[in-house]
Amino acid sequence: xxxxxxxxxxxxxxKKNPLTDNDIARMVNTxxxxxTEFRKRNNLPNxxxxxxxxxxxxxxxxxxxxxxxSDNLLCKKLSMIGYKISRFSVTQIRKQLIVERTSECSxxxxxxxxxxxNVVQTTAGKVTNNTEDNVNENTDENVYEDKVEDIVENAxxxxxxxxxxxxxxxxxxxxxxxxxxxxxxxxxxxxxxxxNQIKQAEAAVLYPPHGLHTLILGPSGVGKSYFAESMYxxxxxxxxxxxxxxxxxxxxxxxxxxxxxxxxxxxGYTKGAFTGANTDKxxxxxxxxxxxxxxxxxxxxxxxxxxxxxxxxxxxxxxxLGETENNRRANIMVIAATTEDPKSSLLLTFRRRxxxxxxxPPINKRPTNERxxxxxxxxxxxxxxxxxxxxxxxxxxxxxxxxxxxxxxGQLRSDIQVACAKGLLNSLSNNxxxxxxxxxDLPEHVPLGLLSVESRNxxxxxxxxxxxxxxxxxxxxxKLKEDRYLLPDGIYNNIEEEYYNLEKQGxxxxxxxxxxxxxxxxxxxxxxxxxESNMQFHKNELKxxxxxxxxxxxxxxxxxxxxxIGNLKDNFYYCVAVHLSSTCExxxxxxxxxxxxxxxxxxxxxxxxxxxxxxxxxxxxxxxxELPEDEVGFLAMYLKxxxxxxxxxSRVNVIVLSHGHVxxxxxxxxxxxxxxxxxxxxxxxxxxxxxxLLEKTIETVKKVYEGKGxxxxxxxxxxxxxGEIITKQTGIPTRVIGRVDTVMVLEAVRRALLSNSxxxxxxxxxDGDKSFVGKVKGIKKYxxxxxxxxxxxxxxxxxxxxxxxxxxxxxxxxxxxxxxGIMNMENTKNEILEINKDHNIIAVVGTINPExxxxxxxxxxxxxxxxxxxxxxxxxxIKTINPLTRVINKNxxxxxxxxxxxxxxxxxxxxxxxxxxxxxxxxxMSVYKREIMGSTIAAGNIAIPHGLxxxxxxxxxxxxxxxxxxxxxxxxxxxxxxxxxxxxxxKDIILKLFELMSNEEIVHRLEHMTYVDEIExxxxxx
Length: 1022
Known about the structure:
The structure is a single chain. With about 1000 residues, this protein is of the alpha/beta class. The protein folds into 8 domains: about 1-40; about 50-175, no CATH class; about 215-360, P-loop containing nucleotide triphosphate hydrolases (Rossmann fold, 3-Layer(aba) Sandwich), CATH 3.40.50.300; about 365-490, no CATH class; about 540-640, PRD domain (PTS-regulatory domain, PRD, Orthogonal Bundle), CATH 1.10.1790.10; about 645-765, Phosphotransferase system, mannose-type IIA component (Rossmann fold, 3-Layer(aba) Sandwich); about 785-875, Rossmann fold, CATH 3.40.50; about 885-1020, Mannitol-specific EII, Chain A. The protein has 42 helices and 25 strands. Strands 2-5-8-1-9 form a 5-stranded parallel β-sheet. A 5-stranded mixed β-sheet has the order 21-24-25-23-22. The protein has a 4-stranded parallel β-sheet with strand order 14-13-15-16, sandwiched between helices. Strand 22 and strand 23 form a beta hairpin. Helix 38 packs antiparallel against helix 39 (about 925-935). The longest helix has 28 residues, at about 85-115. The radius of gyration is 35 Å and the shape is globular. It starts with a helix and ends with a helix.
């Protein structure tokens, strides 16, 4: 039985070199995936884990005899006692063990500061290594506990010395490295959600001799820059306390498009290095020597900059711009931060030189109690800034705890600042000594968080149960560097100064309120454009948290409001429902309702206040309550805030609809070029139904409508009917144009921005000929055309079109592909015949044959295979030539049984190619450099090494088949090696090669070939 065979193989394997899943799969004649699944099902560790224990014991013995042994010599000694292991793997294991020990030393030192008699024992912080070949899966920390003890005993005497010095200082009553000056331990969540991250940071800083380079990951606003600065403060207060220890910040976004300026800023330059370099200049790397260099937004660093920094991280050497011989040294620790996926935004070589990865979670992944501490801290800071006590009402705190906060900690702080700014204005206008933050002071998206049942239930009762009061004299020092969401620092002073200046001029309180509030609205609106908050709520959710009777009243009131005001945004219903529910609770408790802006609202929002009085009467009647005039004011504010149409800026709105990812791009181009946000794109995926697209379009039209109608530009004739349906359902006037391109969108938006614009005039101007997709006029020579059809509709026909475009990518002549959805066979035939009047239809491709006389039909199933593709290409007139005929040379194909290592293979193949004159002598080094960056392995046992095109004289491929497999990288064994020496424009060769290598049948045939001629024929005759 195969499973018994697998177990026997594992039990009898060489413990120093366990069998990989690939090895076992070949021995029992099955797939690697089957072996992997079998292992996991039976809780069997992988080969790396199976040899870990014996490997660690042997490393321990070797290091104990020679604590200063190099990684290279350690690797050789392991090889001498039977291990097959690379120096890179030895280095990574050694780093991992030292880092874990270092983190343990850090925690023990803190325990000694608290109580020198106690020894604090803790599990080591986890180290995340981003090299793909050294990933630890669910590491059991106990596995390392005994082995780490002696391995790192003498890792660096500075650490031991520092612990001893700290203990001595404590015994003398000297305050040194405690929590009060260790900023890492002041971060909210240091003993909670960020505990592991703090441990990682401490381990990175303490790692000898200059710390581990670190990459901090996390979305915008989570506090990456603050975390980096805290790491610096921790370092400055511990190991790096002696002498100059700089912290240099470099924002990569500033130099993303200018590599030369990047070089000069980072590394400095010599006099005369370039025009304008009149003196020598010190670079930031030199300034950061013996300290920390912080690279903010590192994903914006171009690849050239990453390669330059890679050399610095790898060798610790650099040159100023203009220097040719003098190598300078810099002992620096690099901390980088990014919001992007490092695998897609950073070069592999650069990532491999940053072993410590610290990921900071978004605010919605952190516990509620930590969010509450952040809220208290931020209100405390604002209280200190305005020098007034701040009382934050209970519902305000609940809202801040529960709302969706896409900008994370940064947005949380900015929303608190907005509330404090409005609260300060209320305080000044009412001559109050303190500031009270009411629910109405919050930005409109914050209270909506209370609508979510999940959010409401996530707030534990023991966190708080009353208003929050913060004193200006009790300031928390938490500061966030990523402040794109923060209001201008002096906004409170501006409000206060403005108020007293206007008061000195003798203006009445109402007039002062009016002036300041208008300025405040302008400032807050400007600020709000920096943030986007798209929330969707459902009425069913409201029923779980708000009395259904109140919901019915609000729905009735909303409909009444629309009769008086016009269209209202959807949020009006939700906000009023929450507000009215809260108001009813307050009235039942006998609490006073006070609106400090009532007089201002009555005068400034006259029409809204008039309508609000009518709505209030209906509410009083339906709920049998008596709302005070202050509540009328609040309702008027909601009417004003959620009015969809502002008559002063009424415009024609432009909406672009497309299949695939086109519409948003065209809308963005038009908006950026014309400095507006008027154009909106809606994109329909190829498997999305037209009905769903219609629903999305209706919602968008209702959302953007500004009073002059909506102009729809669509990319298919079938969408033209949307306009009539939308107008019938919403009452909003629309016009639809059945074609679209970027120029049309630009012209439509340009005309819509004119104050006297008219929707019909714009539509007539840009669509004078009323043409539609599929009807091309003015072409004398009929274009070759392929019709794609599908019975399930136009979406699938579009998918077939996209596939054909990829297949026929290299065909440059005029060719059109027209998708048609078959709803009625007879109508479809007529439509195809109509198209054929001014098109040369050469074929119909699809899932069903419309049986058009004289027009060939090819099943889409056949098109997926080579014969079908060839048939179509023959109909079009494409001569198909295998691009591999240009690069396959019998002299560069060998079958060998005398090569046993990767280096032997690379040397042999590069020698063959150099001898044949297709590459120069520098090609071999470029191959090795590429392999260091990461190997390319296809189909499990085929290696594809390649070098730089700069050293290629003639595009060629060298093929080597080994009779015995060799280890290529990590546990991957190969017996077929295909070395590429290609020019930059050889894309077709690469595509063809990978097409062959992804074909299991071809790979299987290749593995069993024994003659060079067979291999040559295999590649040339496909």
